[in-house]
């Protein structure tokens, strides 16, 4: 009887998998038939990326190597349906989902992708991915979520295209997200070069390692901005992207249980055009301008006067630090700290490091009820004070206040497709109902909690809770402090009888003056597997 049940479970799983693969092939064939037309008509920025990926793949793959191509090739398909009541889809049903979400009530999507991962044990390796989605009640009906090719030689790596990435120091499932990058917005197509994994410094006997990257890319939300913005409000097009970071790790876990990590990450928006009312501002994007954002410096004579006197482009970044203690019995306790900045005065601590994200992550590996716990305190309220004065010959003093986090005078701020690229608790422009692409409340203080565990073998839960107080901006403060609360309760079921399947049910609720009252749920079904 036991053998019969096991065989029956196996047959059921095989039937499900064969049926699902047939559906997946139909979806991929349909997406393939429409992809070139859609890219040519609506996604002009993706043309260069798609060509680079195609030709890069041809160069990377040897002739007569179909077996090598399919080796390690996996597929993933997913569908999600959300139903809500109130003002919007609840906050934690949309935030930190790599932009594949919608604040509009009652939405859904169907997603399918194929991937090949890097083989880190080999000196030379390559990877690629294509991840496409069709959606209902989203900012766009067809989404090129990921389309990339990666190449690795020894410790060096190159990545070309759109690829989902998370912040370096934050748990992607439990954290509210980093201050510079969080995984809240759609991936930005880019060419990224660097050392992606920690590499030991020679001569340190494993006690010091480093990693880092340099990237240039392009924002793809031109069409969304034109559709969203109200007449007379600011929007941009053809804006370029730059990021870089350098991290150092000190410690050797095999010999001592404390590991210190720290580093600097920076990002910038530059080039493109801005439209403010009837005025068009052309920002240069020549080779010299790529160097001007790499080493932040003043613009040349063909930039607006403010960019010449200050720094060319929209620059921001954060200092990030963590200390991990590997306790006995595989416990880990990791406090971490991020200091955000948008100018030199904050970058080098001239006015103190009052604005920050300070958190702690604790893992309990043998506790099925609580496997991981995260607490974070977030503050963006100070911004070096309410006074700004740029030095003049008559009054040479400099007061570098009112930093106006995530916003900028020329660009539409640190957002992509309306979703903030930084911490999502600073509410994204997509929530604005007046057609203004701006962060209306970047002065905020809050607390965030995240808990997850596996109470039984096939079941995982996750709980998020965030509470914030919001002051608006220095230029347009709220008359009264607006309080906000957002919560999520989620169950993920991964039946061992159905290999590669998981089913997730999520409930979200919002309360407070920032987003109003909303409540809703989401059901997600995912299938993963290997293509043989």
TrEMBL record:
Superkingdom, natural source: Bacteria
**What species was this sequence derived from?**
Parabacteroides goldsteinii dnLKV18
User: Can you name this protein?
Assistant: Capsule assembly protein Wzi
> Which InterPro entries does the protein's record reference?
Wzi_sf
């Amino acid at each position: 009887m036991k053998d019969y049940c096991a065989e029956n479970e196996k047959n059921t799983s095989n039937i499900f998998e064969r049926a699902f693969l047939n559906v997946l092939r139909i979806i991929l064939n349909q997406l393939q038939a429409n992809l070139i037309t859609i890219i040519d008509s609506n996604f002009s920025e993706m043309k260069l990326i798609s060509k680079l990926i195609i030709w890069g793949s041809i160069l990377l793959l040897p002739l007569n190597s179909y077996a090598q191509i399919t080796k390690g090739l996996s597929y993933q398909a997913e569908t999600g349906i959300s139903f809500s009541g109130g003002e919007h889809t609840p906050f934690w049903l949309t935030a930190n989902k790599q932009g594949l979400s919608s604040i509009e009530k009652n939405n859904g999507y169907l997603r399918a992708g194929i991937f090949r991962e890097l083989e880190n044990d080999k000196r030379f390796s390559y990877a690629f991915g294509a991840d496409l989605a069709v959606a209902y009640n989203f900012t766009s009906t067809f989404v090129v979520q990921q389309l990339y090719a990666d190449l690795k030689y020894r410790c060096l790596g190159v990545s070309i295209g759109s690829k989902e990435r998370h912040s370096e120091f934050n748990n992607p499932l439990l954290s509210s997200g980093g201050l510079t990058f969080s995984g809240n917005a759609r991936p930005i197509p880019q060419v990224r070069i660097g050392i992606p994994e920690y590499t030991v410094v020679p001569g340190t006997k494993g006690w010091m390692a480093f990693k880092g990257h340099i990237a240039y890319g392009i924002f793809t939300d031109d069409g969304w901005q034109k559709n969203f913005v109200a007449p007379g409000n600011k929007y941009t097009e053809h804006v370029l992207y730059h990021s870089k970071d350098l991290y150092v790790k000190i410690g050797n876990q095999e010999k001592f249980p404390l590991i210190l990590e720290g580093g600097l990450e920076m990002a910038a928006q530059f080039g493109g055009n801005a439209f403010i009312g009837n005025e068009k501002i052309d920002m240069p994007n020549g080779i010299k301008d790529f160097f001007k954002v790499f080493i932040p410096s003043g613009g040349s004579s063909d930039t607006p006067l403010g960019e010449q006197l200050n720094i060319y482009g929209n620059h921001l970044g954060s200092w990030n630090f963590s200390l991990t203690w590997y306790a006995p019995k595989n416990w880990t306790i990791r406090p971490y700290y991020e200091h955000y900045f948008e100018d030199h005065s904050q970058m080098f601590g001239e006015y103190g490091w009052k604005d920050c994200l300070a958190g702690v992550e604790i893992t309990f590996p043998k506790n099925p009820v609580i496997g991981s716990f995260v607490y974070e305190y977030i503050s963006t309220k100070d911004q070096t004070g309410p006074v700004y004065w740029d030095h003049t010959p008559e009054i040479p003093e400099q007061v570098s206040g009112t930093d106006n986090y995530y916003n900028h005078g020329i660009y539409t701020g640190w957002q992509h497709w309306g979703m903030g690229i930084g911490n999502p608790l600073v509410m994204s422009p997509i929530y604005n109902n007046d057609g203004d692409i701006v962060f209306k409340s970047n002065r905020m203080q809050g607390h965030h909690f995240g808990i997850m565990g596996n109470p039984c073998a096939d079941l995982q839960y996750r709980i998020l809770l965030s509470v914030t107080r919001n002051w608006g901006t220095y230029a347009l403060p709220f008359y009264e402090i607006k309080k906000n609360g957002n919560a999520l309760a989620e169950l993920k079921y991964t039946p061992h009888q159905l290999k590669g399947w998981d089913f997730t049910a999520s409930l979200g609720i919002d309360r407070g003056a920032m987003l109003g009252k909303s409540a809703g749920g989401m059901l997600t079904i995912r299938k993963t597997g290997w293509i043989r």
